[in-house]
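Readers outside the structure-tokenisation community will struggle with the description of the input data as it stands. Showing the layout once, in full, would remove most of the difficulty. For illustration, here is how one protein appears when written out as sequence plus structure tokens:
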Amino acid sequence: MIKIATVTEVSPEDAAAQGHDVTVEIKEKDGLFLACCLELDVSSFGGTFEDAREMIEDAMKNFLETASDEEVDRRITAYRRRYGRTRMYTTRVQVPA
């Protein structure tokens, strides 16, 4: 049997309000959840998945409040030049051993 986990995509309202849809990647390592907004190159962490998601949203909000529109556009454009405009979705699939 193959079991498919839920796919989660995070697109903060602040980024969407400026016309940007960004990707947030959250990984668990040694009981700590590391979150990174790939396009903006902003990261944070938390003790749980939800904590990490809230912390990255706060970090991105703070970044967007302080960064110039040019800096935001520069980071997003640089990321998309390197990796393309496609969205990234991550999921886990369990297959029998």
